[in-house]
Write a structure and sequence with these properties.
The structure is a single chain. By secondary structure, the chain is an alpha/beta fold. The chain is built from 13 helices and 12 strands. The chain has a 7-stranded parallel beta sheet, with helices on both faces. The chain has a 3-stranded mixed beta sheet with strand order 7-9-11. The mean pLDDT is about 95.
Length: about 350
């Protein structure tokens, strides 16, 4: 048996592939387009591992996906492939429409053809697991209850709208074609291999480089932070025990304002790698103009996955942030390789 993973050279996908193979589970066929955030260096630890087959390709290439399904006959397809950065979606929404909507549609069509051609026993065992985001639910007020799976979709950015559309396609293909699907909606991930355009790796990178630490608006936007290793374990649990057609929200039980998150990271860095001048990293914090349509608060109600499947996050906020800072300190070469001239131009454009 094998599984097909799409987007497995990106941040969450690469962590999932590494964790999966470290656990001694089935071989993986890994399909990734290798856009700016897809990086084969993320998978360097798997070099020479016969259980990992990498294929460079686009999920919009339905013929390629059909070929991989026919050739490898996986028992599951797990879709991580997505454009995922809200800021980039504001500047270039079409990329998000193509990958997140059209790409998901092509995958569903390929899977529909595949399950129609395999035996009833193979079809009963097959799963299409679609990895999505809590941003499809919109924004919460401070006193609102956390996002449950029954929360109405109210996406507020081109990114979240494109992911909402993909979620609806997955639901529709289950209802209309009885496709064996599962959907997960996760909160903000952080951890190793995250491209430093997202808040946590950006703050770590800028702090160490002596650059300003940009904080949107008043910094009181609240996010539920989920360590990527916990997310990967949740996906494995849903794949194994999730009910067909169901949605499972995955959260880290770690609601924090962005400003508090930055202060925590600065404090960890103060202890792990103090500034040469003896000052605190928090002195580099700089408030910048808020981005358009910035959602105020996200929070995940993860009772369903806990009660039905028995999954709960294992990392505390302090342990997860500490592990993440240590990884970036220990992997300076990786950071230097991904923060190229193109990356620097993007950061300058976005924050100045």
């Amino acid at each position: 048996m094998t599984i097909l993973v799409t987007g497995g050279a990106g941040f969450i996908g690469a962590n999932f592939v590494i964790d999966w193979l470290a656990a001694g589970l089935e071989p993986i066929v890994n399909l990734d387009k290798l856009t700016y955030a897809g990086n084969l260096e993320n998978l360097s630890s798997l070099k020479g591992n016969s259980s990992h087959v990498f294929v460079r390709g686009d999920i919009c290439d339905q013929g390629l996906v059909e070929k991989l399904l026919a050739e490898h006959k996986p028992r599951a397809l797990i879709n991580f492939a997505a454009e995922s950065h809200v800021d980039r979606s504001i500047h270039a929404p079409e990329d998000f429409i193509q990958t997140n909507i059209i790409g998901t549609f092509r995958l569903l069509e390929a899977v529909r053809a595949h399950v129609g051609a395999i035996s009833d026993a193979e079809k009963a065992a097959f799963r299409f697991l679609h990895v999505s985001t809590d941003e499809v639910y919109g924004s919460l007020l401070p006193t609102d209850p956390a996002f449950a799976e029954t929360k109405r979709y109210e996406p507020n950015s081109p990114y979240s709208a494109s992911k909402a559309a993909s979620d609806h396609l997955v639901r529709a293909y289950h209802h209309t074609y009885h496709l064996p699907v599962l959907t997960t909606n996760c909160s903000n991930n952080y951890g190793p291999y995250q491209f430093p355009e997202k808040l946590i790796p950006l703050i770590i990178h800028n702090a160490l480089a002596g650059k300003p630490l940009p904080i949107y608006g008043d910094g009181q936007q609240i996010r539920d932070w989920l360590y990527v290793g916990d997310h990967c374990s949740a996906i494995r649990a849903v794949l194994e025990r999730g009910r067909l057609g169901e949605v499972y929200n995955i959260g880290g039980n770690n609601e924090r304002a962005n400003l508090d998150t930055v202060k925590s990271l600065c404090a960890i860095l103060d202890g792990a790698k103090p500034r040469a001048d003896g000052k605190k990293y928090a002195e580099q914090m700089t408030f910048v103009k808020d981005r358009p349509g910035h959602d105020r608060r996200y929070a995940i109600d993860a009772c369903k996955i806990a009660n039905e499947i028995g999954w709960r996050p294992s990392e505390t906020p302090d342990s997860g942030f500490g592990k993440t800072v240590k990884w970036y300190l220990d992997n300076d070469a990786w950071v230097k390789n991904v923060t190229s001239g193109t990356y620097r131009a993007w950061v300058t454009k976005q924050y100045q």
